Amino acid sequence: MVDRMSHVDSGETVRGVENLVEAAQLRQTCATWPTGVAAVTSAGTDGVPVGLAVNSFTSLSLEPPLVLFCAALSSTTWPRIRAAGRFLVQVLAADQHDVAEVFARSGGDKFAGLAWHRRDGLPELAGISAVLKCSLVEVHTGGDHEIAVGRVEAVETFGKRPLVFHDGAMHTLPLPRVAGSGAEER
Ligand SMILES: Cc1cc2nc3c(=O)[nH]c(=O)nc-3n(C[C@H](O)[C@H](O)[C@H](O)COP(=O)(O)O)c2cc1C
């Protein structure tokens, strides 16, 4: 199938063109870019905890403090986060591969069997590397995704090394080499 998309050509004009790159090729190329893995969680109007795994999280602005993530239109969790209007971005720690896998699966109770508590009513997982509490301030369209912009209201870091996603697999960073310290995992 040929999609139409907006494209800035070498003449700096915006026009509709055919997709020039196959989706699989684009996915494979973008997978060369290493990222962290975050669980974005919220609580529906019924208070039920919901969440999904994302690697599209990024910082956007310091003044005002904004971050973003991209949610697939196919996500069943994103409409609930959008309706709630607030969410937690939780940077997963190096030993949380299993948590990432749970949050990357659609449907079911993703919190069953995991340790978690509520932070201002929002579900926060135990053992994470960092958390950002956000209110949803903007949603932009982006092809088959939506771009969710959150205003950061609170942050906390826990000094844990992060989980890394690269080439379609989860990795951990090597321990830093600090002369004479015998650097240890925290
Ligand atoms: C490492 C990793 C990163 C992901 N990043 C995103 C992302 O940025 N946005 C997104 O919508 N889905 C992302 N996904 C896929 C969702 O986590 C997955 O589709 C999940 O099943 C959605 O669940 P839901 O239907 O409950 O929303 C990612 C999955 C993995 C494993």
Structural class: mainly beta
Q: C-alpha Rg, in Å?
A: 18 Å
Q: How large is the share of residues in beta strands? A: 35-45%
Q: N-to-C terminal Cα separation, in Å?
A: 49 Å
- Spatial order of the strands in the main sheet? 5-4-8-11-12-7-6
Series of H and E elements: EEHEEEEEHEHEEEEEE
Tell me the number of strands. Answer: 14
Low-confidence stretches: 1-14
Main pleated sheet: 7 strands, antiparallel
Class of the domain at 38-162 in CATH?
Answer: Mainly Beta
Bound molecules: flavin mononucleotide
Helix content: 10-25%
* CATH architecture designation of the domain at 38-162: Roll
**What's the overall geometry?**
globular
Mean of residue pLDDT values: 89
Number of helices: 3
CATH fold category name of the domain at 38-162: Pnp Oxidase, Chain A
The CATH superfamily label of the domain at 38-162 reads Electron Transport, Fmn-binding Protein, Chain A
How would you characterize the overall build of this protein?
By secondary structure, the protein is mainly beta. It has a domain at 38-162: Pnp Oxidase, Chain A, CATH 2.30.110.10. It is built from three helices and 14 strands. The chain has helices at 23-30, 78-84, 97-103; strands spanning 4-8, 14-18, 35-36, 38-43, 49-54, 58-61, 66-72, 86-91, 116-119, 122-125, 130-142, 145-157, 163-166, 169-172. The strands form four sheets. Strands 5-4-8-11-12-7-6 form a seven-stranded antiparallel beta sheet, with helices on both faces. The longest helix has 8 residues, at 23-30. Mean pLDDT is 89; it is low at 1-14. Bound molecules: flavin mononucleotide (FMN).
